[in-house]
Amino acid sequence: MKKMLMAAAGGILAGTVLTTQIAGPLIAQDAGRSASVYQQLDLFGDVFERIRANYVEKVAPEELIEAAINGMLISLDPHSNYLPPEDAADMRRQTRGAFGGLGIEVTQEEGFIKVVSPMDGTPADDAGMLSGDFITHVDGESLLGLTLDEAVGLMRGPVGSEIVITVVREGVDEPFDVSIIRDTIKLTAATVRAIGNTVLIRVTTFNDQTFPNISDGFDTVTEELGGLENVEGVVLDLRNNPGGLLTQAIAVSDAFLREGEIVSTRGRNPEDTERFNAEPGDIAAGKPVVVLINGGSASASEIVAGALQDHRRAVVVGTKSFGKGSVQTVMPLRGDGAMRLTTARYYTPSGRSIQALGVSPDIVVEQPARVPEEEEGEDKGRPVRTEADLRGSLDNDSLTEDQIKLIEEERAAAEEAAELRDKDFQLSYAVDLIKGLSTIGMMDQQ
Q1: pLDDT class of 2 with cuts at 50, 70, 90
Q2: Which of 74-88, 94-108, 115-129, 189-203 has the highest mean pLDDT?
Q3: Axis crossing angle, helix 300-310 with helix 246-254, rounded to the nearest 10
Q4: 114 catalytic, yes or no?
Q5: Which listed residue (87, 114, 131, 324) is catalytic?
Q6: What burial class does residue 226 get, using C-beta atoms within 10 Å of its C-beta: 0-12 exposed, 13-18 middle, 19+ buried?
Q7: For the chain, which has fewer Cβ within 10 Å, the N-terminal or C-terminal residue?
Q8: How far is CA 288 from CA 141, 193, 313, 439, in A?
Q9: CB contact set of 16 (below 8 Å; sequence gap of 6+)
């Protein structure tokens, strides 16, 4: 039976991704159900026929059946549901990294639609949506009382069309409207770049391109830095990453672990337990690793953070993660639809479940609110004149040209670090931590 494991938190607008495994077609179970079950099915058939015959308006039988199936599933937990053919097709497209929508991951919390995370560079991200935002209305229509799929359906629309969503945000007194233009979402699963001698790996989602992106990018960047010996460490940025393929979460964790368990999934029956272990090898060759997480880091992201944290392979920095620790199996149904059913919980190597608890960072670092440019003051950005700028100023005759060049490079690096602190304090903290850990490591080797 072919399976594809996935791990994410809620519904992406154009489909839904969850901690999921794709199973084979649903087949009939053996007979032997109790008579009471058949009596209840007879009751269902009776209600179905009465609705068809007596409801005030004509209702399509297939819509009644789909609604009944979905009602059965959503009564179990927030992540089990029925996927009509269109939604099932959308979900399959998401794992390949291209789909239409807003680029926002949502879930349902106490009847309200909550943003898990906006995805980097998507319309929702550009519009300023934040993890933890609540969406109350779409184009003036209330979402209260709708299922997650119904709410997501209202947010769908043609590429290029406008949608106005009403947002309730913590710390903001009144709800406010956000206008977003729908677009085709083409996700780059992971990007790799250098910040000084630190390798930054930014993972936006776990699709089938995530580990290949990381592997290729890491090789390219380390070569640009002159080899792995010049790398101080790695920052793995999983902030606002809602998850994706479990197999990719395992591969990314394995990239930094030489041995040991990465994650286990445990179902209702003990024999359903699966354990996934690391294979020898570490792409960072033991260099320090810092993992960045926040409240938008969910499921597959939490698997990676939890595995590296439990093995003491990385220092986890940021704020508490989302806390989704369940596994859903997507089962294809006749008619090209599918059902998603929670079938297991996953556990980190130490045996802890992060369900509803999340991964707690080793070092809590909040991201300060950005100060609007108009509040930064008139002097912000004004160049500061120094002695060297004065006409006729004397040269420094105590340093060689190479020494002066080195000082200028160090000054430029310090200015770049200061700019990063203003732009992304959590990332700046992680990079500084890598430098400190690298220095300690070099001292230990002496």
Answers
A1: very low
A2: 189-203
A3: 30
A4: no
A5: 324
A6: exposed
A7: C
A8: 49, 16, 8, 10
A9: 10, 81, 83, 87, 90, 91, 148, 149, 152, 340
Residue 250 has pLDDT above 50, yes or no: yes
Secondary structure of residue 410 in the 3-state scheme: helix
Q: Which residue has the higher pLDDT, 410 or 192?
A: 192
List of domains in the chain:
100-186 (2.30.42.10), 190-364 (3.90.226.10)
Identify the band that residue 395 occupies on the pLDDT scale cut at 50, 70 and 90: low
- 207 three-state secondary structure: coil
CB 108 within 8 A of CB 144: no
The string of DSSP letters for 7-26 reads EE-SEETTEE--SEEE----
Q: Quick check: is 393 catalytic?
A: no
Count of all residues that appear for the chain in the document: 446
How far lies 205's CA from each of 130, 148, 244, 293, 425, in Å? 16, 21, 6, 13, 22
Residue pair 265/303 in contact (Cβ under 8 Å)? The answer is: no
CA–CA gap between residue 306 and residue 315 (Å, rounded): 10
Which of 117, 297, 299, 321 is flagged as catalytic? 299
Distance CA 160, CA 182 (A): 5
List of residues 6+ apart from 13 with CB closer than 8 A: 101, 102, 103, 104, 106, 124, 152, 155, 156
Structure-token match 């839904």, residue found: 16
* Distance separating alpha carbons of residues 60 and 5, to the nearest angstrom: 34
Q: Are 13 and 117 in contact (CB under 8 A)?
A: no
Task: Give residue 397's pLDDT band: very low, low, confident or very high (50, 70, 90).
Answer: low
E-strand stretches of 27-182: 81-83, 98-101, 104-109, 112-118, 134-138, 141-142, 162-168, 176-181
Catalytic residue among 120, 237, 310, 321: 310
Sign of the torsion formed by the C-alpha atoms of 434, 440, 442 and 444: negative
